[in-house]
Automatic annotation (TrEMBL):
Residues passing through the membrane, by range: none
GO cellular component: DNA polymerase III complex
Pfam families noted in UniProt: DNA_pol3_delta2
Protein name as catalogued: DNA polymerase III subunit delta
NCBIfam families: PRK07471.1
GO term, biological process aspect, one: DNA-templated DNA replication
Name of the gene encoding the protein in the UniProt record: holB
PANTHER family: DNA POLYMERASE III SUBUNIT DELTA (PTHR11669:SF8), REPLICATION FACTOR C / DNA POLYMERASE III GAMMA-TAU SUBUNIT (PTHR11669)
Length: 307
């Protein structure tokens, strides 16, 4: 999949486009929009699409579109988690220093005489100071300025930020839309992606299905043995192997909890929910502190074992 800044192939979010288009046509365009939906569903792609609408950059080979794609358009500013150069991964939060350029950007006259657009991608990662800095901007927006916030966790945002934004809630893509966007991805991967192209690409990293098979065996109660340790070491070495294994284990535990609730077994449902929560804590700690992933995988397997 393309970077959202470069992706002109928006699919599956026609209703959100229609709502925004009607507001723009009416001349009563709200100054802040909260684009919410599951991870990987296309929230940032939609934000850049709407930004191009405002900036007259919808035609891919137009000068304005090329500037948006290159990140050099003077009237478009993107705020997101920065890369931690020491660890080679995204930082855990968006800081006040990351948000600070928005204030200066909003004060300047639009370089091309139109709208000024800010995209805050992953607004749930705003720390307290960054959120308060952004809130001040939302409370007193300059004319002809728009802020798009994307989030997979609207509840993690300050209520005062949510209340100042008009929501655009995105739905999962249909099977046909998923196949159009990802024509080369296996059917079993698309089925597990729940209408999210980004999740499908993440799952597709398990190219031979070995991690998914491993997780299935663990969820069925199989304990680690000598034959499985080679896979544990392999997964630990892969860039996204540990994250993928935790994701699949977490999904399996969530399904276990739903099944237990359906059968009226609330105690086991609560246990599965707690196991999933503990797994997420293990993942955050392992990735945040760069701990031994092979050891963490063994802990994850123990966490997911049947009671």
């Amino acid at each position: 999949m393309k970077d959202p800044r470069q992706n002109f192939n928006l699919r599956g979010h026609e209703q959100a486009e229609r709502v925004f288009g009607e507001a723009l046509s009416s001349g009563r365009l709200h100054h802040a929009w909260l684009i919410a939906g599951p991870a990987g569903i296309g929230k940032a792609t939609l934000a850049f699409h709407l930004a191009r609408v405002l900036l007259g950059a919808e035609t891919p080979d137009s000068p304005a579109a090329r500037r948006v794609t290159a990140g050099t358009h003077g009237d478009l500013l993107e705020i997101a988690r920065a890369v931690d150069e020491k660890r080679g991964r995204l930082r855990s939060e968006i800081t006040a220093a990351d948000v600070r350029p928005v204030q200066a950007f909003m004060r300047h006259t639009a370089t091309e005489g139109g709208w000024r657009v800010v995209i805050v991608d992953g607004a749930e990662f705003l720390n307290r100071f960054a959120a308060n800095a952004l809130l001040k901007i939302l409370e007193e927006p300059p004319p002809r300025s728009i802020i798009f916030l994307t989030t997979s966790s609207p509840g993690a945002l300050l209520p005062t930020i949510r209340s100042r934004c008009r929501p655009l809630v995105l739905s999962p893509l249909s099977d046909a839309e998923m196949r159009f966007v990802l024509p080369d991805v296996r059917d079993d991967v698309l089925a597990r992606a729940h209408g999210s192209p980004g999740r499908a690409m993440f799952l597709a990293q398990d190219k031979d299905g070995a991690i998914a098979s491993f997780v299935t065996e663990i969820l069925r109660g199989k304990r680690l043995d000598a034959d499985m340790m080679a896979l544990v070491d392999r997964v630990a070495r892969e860039t996204e192997g540990f994250a993928l294994l935790c994701d699949l284990l977490g999904e399996g535990l969530a399904e276990r909890a739903r099944s237990d609730v359906g059968h009226g077994d609330l105690s086991h449902a609560a246990l599965a929910a707690q196991q999933r929560s503990d797994l997420e804590t293990l993942r955050r700690q392992t990735e945040g502190f760069n701990l031994d992933k092979a050891q963490a995988i063994r802990q994850a397997v123990e966490l997911a074992a049947h009671a």
